[in-house]
Amino acid sequence: MKKIIAILLSFFLFSFAMSEEQPLVVGMELSYPPFETTDIDGNPTGFSVDLAEELGKYLNRPVKIENMSYSGLIPSLISKKIDIILSSMTITDEREKAINFSVPYAKSYLTLLVSNKSGIQKPIDLNTKGKKIAVRGGTTAHLVAREYFPNAEVLVFDKETTAVLEVSQGKVDAFVYDPLSIYRNWQNYKSTTTPLFDQFQPRIEYWGIGYRKQDKELGKKIDEFITNFKADGGLDRLADKYLSEEKKAFEEQGIPFFIN
Questions:
Q1: Is the omega angle on the peptide bond into residue 179 within 30 degrees of 0, that is, cis?
Q2: Cβ–Cβ < 8 Å for 250, 179
Q3: Burial (Cβ within 10 Å: 0-12, 13-18, ≥19) of residue 231
């Protein structure tokens, strides 16, 4: 009997060790610098990549980044092609019908990058027939643009860079996205665009890590990690590493920064 117990115990310990060594497969769309992007060698890099690596250390699991389209992240999570989503994803009621989210690790809101040819002085000016708004498909900006600017034409683009280029060339009046992205894109097109940091959307949006509804134990550990990492200054360190210029600019203009 003792021998059988010893064998069972050894098997349990082996299985537990194997589960701890299983890669944590993280879904991201690597086209959203400085959060999720690639370096000159094509390797994943950015705020979210570092955050995923820190989570992997906390869980004692190696991290594997899976690059995929933003619209494919939730279906891939549900079908178990990935273990979690860590891709600057906003927590929404609609998304929570399909998956669970961690406690928030960041906050944001939506604002505008407008063409200097548009004549737009304030967000409400966009809600006019004939005005064109660029959004990225599958983002909350897509839904919010239709809600707040029903009289304008909303044009959906797969890539942020394409949408911004349309605004820069004056083909579209405005691009709706978060302030950090608006600021960065404005830096590239200062002569043709203007950022409007007015918070036309009254509610704040929160970013979280997505996981399957049945993975409650994993979700609990992710919440513990975020809480501890934030309390230890980890989120601030990542912000200083990847967003120091933006953080300074936002503080000077009194704009709420994305880290709580």
A1: no
A2: yes
A3: exposed
Contact status, residue 246 vs residue 183, Cβ threshold 8 Å: yes
Question: Residue 225 CB: number of other CB atoms within 10 A?
Answer: 22
Residue found by looking up tokens 């405005």 in the block: 174
Q: Name the nearest CA neighbour of 56 among 208, 221, 211.
A: 221
Q: How many CB atoms lie within 10 A of CB 18?
A: 9
Give 200-223 pLDDT, tens digit per residue. Answer: 887 788 999 999 999 999 999 999
96: alpha, beta or left? (left if phi > 0; alpha if psi -120 to 50): alpha
Element (H, E) at 140: helix 140-148
For 148-189, write each residue's pLDDT tens digit.
999 999 999 988 999 999 999 999 999 999 888 899 899 999
- Residue 124 DSSP symbol: G
Cβ(64)–Cβ(22) below 8 Å:
no
CA angle 224, 228, 229 (to 5 degrees): 115
Q: Which tokens sit at 133?
A: 């708004």
Alpha helices in 22-130 (DSSP H): 47-59, 73-78
45 within 8 A of 7, measured Cβ to Cβ: no
